[in-house]
Every structure is written in structure tokens, then in C-alpha cells.
Amino acid sequence: MDSEQLSGELATILYTEAQLKARLEELAREIEADYPGEPPLLVGVLKGAIMVMADLSRELRFHAQMDWMVVSSYGAGTKSSGVVRILKDLDADITDRDVLIVEDIVESGLTLSWLKENFLSRGARSVKIVTMLRKPELAKVEITVDYVGYDIPPDFVVGYGLDYAEDYRNLRDVAVLAPHMYEKK
User: What is the pLDDT of residue 8?
Assistant: First the structure.
């Protein structure tokens, strides 16, 4: 899906597909440097992280094993409820493994804080986090995000896996959704 097709629905483009790809290449080099021995298990948080996981894993120069979780803290709204529900758990045993959580966006930090503690309680050797986007102004808990693509303002963004009511995920860019698109619902 092209941003130009949605010009009335988007307020502004924050990052283009090319900018996102270039930043993921840089993040991949940082991650490789931090894991010179055994690579971490990449854990994507569905559905939003699918684009980041796919593109990041292709940039990594090691065998990238992947697993997925589905957690929910949004429903169909534009703000996190803060209540984490596991809808699909990991298939892999993470005991004594390094885990790298792959996220599309970090806002309140509540979900990631909960996931990190959950993985450590299951015996993970280490848990690090990579995200394409972070909204530092919305943080409700202190959570270390080890690899950050871009810090962004607290606007509601869509594209590159990020949705509003399941729409816009396949937009190639990251854009601010025009307020009239979600205020009317």
C-alpha cells in the first residue's frame, strides 16, 4: 500500500520504507556485535512486529531462530489499556537461552516490562529488546530498550505493521494517522 493513495487519511509521513530499511541494517550490525557466540532467539510480538521481524531477520548475518507471541493490551482503541493478555504463547523452550524481543513500537512499556519479567522467570539467560519505534513521552514504567530505530512524538502512527482497527498494517511507510480517522469512531 502506498502513502500517496491515503493522503486524506494520513497527517504526515514520519519515515519512508527506505529510511526504515536503512535503520534496520544499522540495528542488525549492533545486534550481531552484541551476540558474537550463540545467536539469540528472536521473539516477535504479533501482529505489529511482523514487518520488523521479517526485515530485521533478513539483515542479520547469523541463523536467526524465531518464535512468536500474541499479546493484547489495545483491543480496537488507540491507547494501551495496560492489561496484558496472552493470546498465543511461545512454542520454544527459552531456558538458558538469550532472547531478543522484537517489537514494532514501545509506548507505555507495560507490555514489554511484563514480557521481560515473564521470560526471565521461565529461565531465559538474558532478555533484550529491539523496537523500530519508541514514544519516550508515553513511558509509564522504566524499561531498557536495547536497540531503538527511532524515537517519535506521541502521535498515533500506522504503517509498517502498526494498525488502527486492523487497517494500515501493510502501508510501507510509518505515518501519523489523521485524527479525523479515529475521532469519528
Answer: 86
* Under 8 Å between Cβ of 150 and 23: yes
44-83 pLDDT tens trace: 999 899 999 999 999 999 999 999 999 876 555 545 556 7
Please state whether the peptide bond connecting residue 47 to the residue before it is cis, i.e. omega within 30 degrees of 0. yes
Every domain of the chain and the residues it spans: 17-153
As its CATH architecture, domain 17-153 has 3-Layer(aba) Sandwich (3.40)
- Three-state DSSP state, 182: helix
pTM, rounded to two decimals:
0.90
CA–CA gap between residue 11 and residue 118 (Å, rounded): 37
Evaluate the CA torsion angle 1, 168, 109, 140 in order and state its sign.
positive
Q: At residue 29, what is the residue type?
A: R
Beta bridge partners of 100: 42, 128
